[in-house]
Amino acid sequence: MSSVLIRNGLVIDGTGREAFPADVLVEGDRIADVIDRPGINLLGRVRSPSGPNCTRLADTVIDAAGCLVTPGFVDAHAHSDTYLLIEPDAPSKLSQGITTEVNGQCGGSAVPRYGAARLSSDWASMTYPGGDGTPGPTWRSMAEYRALLDQVRPAINTVQFVGHNTLRSSVIGYDAVRATPETLRAMEDLLARELDDGGWGLTTGLIYQPGKYSDAAEVTALARVASARGGFYATHMRSEGDAILEAIDEVLDLVRATGIRAEISHLKTSGRRNWGKIDDVLAKIERAVGAGELLGSDRYPYCAAGTDLDVVFPDWAGEGGVAAEIERLKDPATRARIAAEIDAQDRDWSTVMIGGTWAEATRHFSGQRINELIAAGAGRPPYRTPGELVCAILAADACRTGAFFFGMSEANLQKILARPWIVPGSDASLRAPHGPLGKDHPHPRAYGTMPRFFRLLTGRVEGHARICSREAAIQRMTSVPAARFNIRDRGVIRPGAYADLAVWREEEFRETATYTAPHAYASGMQAVLVNGAVAYRAGKFANDRRGRFLERS
Fold it and tell me: Which domains does the chain show, CATH number per domain?
């Protein structure tokens, strides 16, 4: 059995307890001992912290002098489902101390994939293990996905939810129709099977295709299936802006009808006209948390959302999914109609930045705002309106383009983060500055969520007041999300817990990724252990990958 000794560090154990000097001994995949200094107890024997016998008890010794030693961080809202199969080192996540992700969010999961169900366009463009080398998924079910994950041996742990959009498209497709009793029963049966094979619960993305066509009764029926199996529910609500209060009521109605444990995803009030609703939103959720109706919410520590550019399409233009969108953009008259309806929207285009694109012809637009591109005369001939530009980019890019929407308030972010039931969720898939994922232009949250969350809570970001102590901040990054989703024996440093650990320099821990230069690792992280293996150390990925597909207990 391999062993690791982390010496001379300042331990923050994830419980909220004040930091204390200690050594941490790891044996196999578990923490064997937490050894207070200066008198230390190693396996029942008293040793001097500087004595030679101390190092002989471990195969690997990490000197953590000047560092914090904390539990590995839990990313409570992630989208790395398929990218774990491509970049199992999980570089952007591991380098910021993330050891466990909660994936399958916003209704769009890797599984199940039957019938008309397709992966999101960026996922679908990748080549995966187990196939013939052509792009696209090589699995259908949770069981098949798990087998591939075991084959590649990811560096981090994953909790896998089942997405409602993926489930619905497997049974009904992408048409704007309500579920019939027969199709609803088929969705229930498929969800039950995927949950029994390791799914953690159900997620929804009720602004996306095809989940937006469902009614509350459909979602409630599926949540009841998840609840009966001890599963959870996480929701990208039907509105995060104009109808946000009504959307919260829909969530609460579902919880009361099913008894499911529920989380509201990436809490925000989108659009300047909705910023003033924040106090009512927080009060409503606070009451529900106090009454035991909601677990809480997650939030990324940035004020720009990141999603697909085609969310600006009018509803009719998006019906049928990406394949139908591409066909509509090929027809000049239909494309002109789409562009005109986009231009008729009440939208400030200075708040929309082009993110990742995949076609060579559009890649130079990444990191630039729509209004700036129009003013600079982008295109040949120049595009005259935002609608024309959006349609041109999406047509060239096969509707795979991402975008950043700067529609949130810094003051509201401060209010949201001040709630103790808010935990960090990157809302991002893992990325790498190299290989197939290095060609993308991701949101900086893919690389910087954890250091920025920590710095915001502890008052280290200019313009933001201190919210809590470092111990309380780390508790919300570790044991709080682990307990919320019943991820047992993780998120804490104590004998018997899994050895998911991060060693980092507090003053150096910061995000370096930006919206214009997003592929940049966080600084300050010295070493990361996952299930007892040193997966990252001194800026290098150790290729000792022991992450796991976690199962509900």
Answer: 73-304+407-437 (3.20.20.140), 308-405 (no CATH)
